[in-house]
Amino acid sequence: MAVGVAVSMPVLYWFQTRLPDGGLSLAFRPSSLWDGGWWPGLLTSMFAHGGWPHVAMNAILGLAFGTPVARLMPGVKGSLGFLAFYIACGLLATAGYGLVHAASYDALVGASGAVFGLMGAALRLLGRRSGRLRALTDRRFLTPAVAIMAVNAVVGLLGFAPGMEGARIAWEAHAFGFVAGALLIGPWARAFGPRPEAFDSPPDLRDPAA
Fold it and tell me: How many CB atoms lie within 10 A of CB 191?
């Protein structure tokens, strides 16, 4: 499913470029939360992008961080759960950005918030071959999480530098998506992951020593 999500991004962007408005109608504008505007933009903006570099970056990161998350939820049920998780992270990321920039009419597009959700979830699996999640308080999760969020904030704030107005990045959406992914992966894995066995038999089936 992670491969499908990654492949869908350039395919959808190809169709987007052939729309009369270039996909602008799919964008999300924070002001729409309050003025009765295009509410579906909360969802549709996830499937539109601002250019091929934007698409390539999200597709690569989505594949890299989505793969371990997808493995946590196998089968048809797991695939549907993975897709729902991806969309939920994207929706929360976009809504969070909208709340921070409530008065903004600027257009927001991209799957970055959802991808950062996959990143937050994947970091809780870092180095865990068993598939068990690291605790949110585990420094092996917290250290890379803080580093990623710091880089995300710095890159986002660079857009406010003189002459960089056209390169602004919705870093707040990334942050909301990351936190959503890190928090939601636990209940999601329990709901869509494989059922735990009733008992765990060791490879040596002999009676234990007295």
Answer: 13
**Cα–Cα distance for residue pair 194/115, rounded to 1 Å:** 23
Separation in Å, CA 44 to CA 4, 13, 49, 105, 181:
18, 12, 10, 16, 19
Range of the domain at 166: 2-192
66 domain-assigned: yes
DSSP lists the bridge partners of residue 28 as 108
- Whichever domain contains 91, its CATH number is 1.20.1540.10
87-139 per-position pLDDT tens digit: 999 999 999 999 999 888 888 999 999 999 999 999 999 877 777 899 999 99
Q: Confidence class of residue 4 from pLDDT cuts 50, 70 and 90?
A: very high
* pTM, entire model: 0.87
The verdict on residue 84 lying in a domain is yes
Q: How many domains does the chain divide into?
A: 1
